[in-house]
Write a structure and sequence with these properties.
- It is a single chain.
- The protein has about 450 residues and is α/β, with parallel strands linked by helices.
- The protein is about 40% helix and about 15% strand.
- The protein is built from 16 helices and 17 strands.
- Strands 10-9-8-7-6-3-12-11 form an 8-stranded parallel β-sheet.
- It is globular.
Length: about 450
């Protein structure tokens, strides 16, 4: 059983040094017991005490790594049911399903889509992470060849899927260094699949038809020395799968029930034959609470919204999405192009840059770091005022890029125009529209 806050406090050095970020050792102990602090934050505990506290410090849902190297993918490590309580830690992975019964051209086409479906957004790269290779032929050689093709043509983390330990071993022979996820250990093949996982240091999926049976399987796996486990409750209807996800998560978090304290895997493609309905089902499991979502195929029109949803849910709600401060060219601006300024809140940036593109007037867009706050909020908080804007304009290099030295500020900060002209000698401050939708009409009147 996990230790209570008072039990943890008795083991701490009681120096109240504050180096952990908390004012007292008691406060740190309480957060540690609630899985809201990291044990490593305390610099003075002994190795013996550290070992005793590992149970309390470990996240209720185990962190599991799939793959190796730069594309190693981590899931789990979660500590809360709801994002507003703290944040969700590790976003779910999207896996492309490839069956070894497919012909070569179809496999090649799917792998090409996997590699091409990559998007840049808010200075992040959005892309899928995994390829699931499923044994449908029952042919060791064919499965091995398919795994080899996936390995040679992608840098993805790999899921090997077969009920047969022998066929899983054949796939492992090809890609063991990638540390693939083995799917799946069941009550019928538990020992041989567990043996493969131990020998190759690979994570494994435990699959059962009920949560009680699943808990028994994970207990047997951990007793045998396999600790990196993913859960498949076996549900293949939306309602039952969703109920299972919520029960697994809540049991692990509120009851600290270790046999279900692992990330999960779901298969929306086995719940419907409609591709768009599959994407809708997948979107549900992005929020509630899957670790891996295996899709029957990837198409840009359905994958991109899922990637954006995942990005939005798995950001810290206390830290708005922001882009890097700097000068962003929109179109192909030159020395006579207008210069606009806004904040680095990502939504503000996307709205403003999109409206500039709509105007078809190439422009220089200055983005000021306001810690991710929008224009009005940043202005009210003193982060988007003359005293902060002027030094940024002076140092960013825009003066050398344009001849006219006219700066367009958002209409909501018109009150700063006079102070800005004092802070920026030689610059003419122009008040732009209050709403982004009015930017195109405004820019069409631009004269350098």
């Amino acid at each position: 059983m996990p230790l209570t806050g008072i039990e943890i406090f008795k083991l701490l050095p009681k120096t109240n040094c504050g180096r952990c970020g908390e004012p007292t050792c008691l406060a740190f102990a309480m957060k540690l017991a609630a899985a809201k602090a990291e044990l490593a934050a305390c610099p003075d505990i002994s190795d013996e005490v550290r070992a005793k506290l590992e149970e309390a410090a470990a996240p209720p849902i185990k962190l599991v790594t799939i793959g190796a190297g730069n594309r190693a993918f981590k899931i789990g490590g979660e500590t809360v049911m709801f994002r507003h309580e703290k944040r969700f830690e590790n976003p779910p992975g999207f896996a492309l399903l490839i069956r070894d019964s497919m012909d070569e051209s179809e496999i090649s086409a799917r792998l090409e889509r996997f590699n091409q479906l990559e998007y840049k957004r808010v200075e992040l790269t959005l892309r899928p992470e995994l390829v699931a290779v499923k044994d449908e032929s029952g042919d060791r050689a064919r499965f091995e060849a398919t795994v080899s093709k996936v390995k040679e043509n992608t840098d993805a983390s790999i899921i090997l899927m077969s009920p047969s330990p022998d066929i899983l071993a054949a796939g492992l022979k090809v890609c063991a260094e990638r540390k693939p996820l083995l799917y799946a250990a069941t009550r019928d093949n538990l020992e041989p699949v567990a043996s493969l996982a131990r020998q190759n240091s690979c994570p494994v999926v435990a699959k059962a038809s009920t949560l009680d049976e699943l808990a028994r399987l994970t207990t047997q796996l951990t007793d045998s020395g396999v600790n990196d486990i993913i859960l498949d409750s076996g549900a293949r209807s939306l309602r039952q799968a969703l109920e299972d996800q919520i029960l697994i998560r809540s049991t692990a978090l509120s009851k600290r029930f270790r046999p279900l304290g692992f990330p999960t895997i779901v298969f929306p493609g086995e719940m419907t034959d409609d591709p768009m309905k599959e994407a809708v089902i997948a979107s549900i499991f992005v929020a509630k609470y899957s670790g891996i979502i295996v899709l029957s195929d990837f198409q840009g029109e359905s994958l991109f919204p899922l990637l954006v949803e995942r990005m939005n849910i798995y950001t810290d709600p206390q830290r708005p999405l922001a882009i890097t401060e700097g000068i962003y060219p929109v179109g192909n601006p030159d020395e006579n192009s207008p210069v606009l300024i806004t904040t680095n809140f990502s939504l503000t940036y996307f709205i403003v840059s999109a409206e500039i593109e709509t105007s078809k007037v190439p422009s220089h867009l200055l983005v000021k770091d306001t810690q991710g706050l929008s224009v009005l909020t940043a202005w009210a908080g003193g982060r988007f005022v003359a005293d902060t804007i002027a030094p940024f304009v002076k140092k960013c290099g825009i003066s050398e890029m344009v001849k006219h030295h006219k700066l367009i500020i958002p209409g909501y900060t018109a009150i700063e125009s006079g102070s800005l002209e004092e802070e920026l000698p030689g610059w003419q401050i122009m008040v732009g529209p209050r709403e982004g939708a009015h930017i195109p009409a405004y820019l069409k009147t631009w004269q350098p």
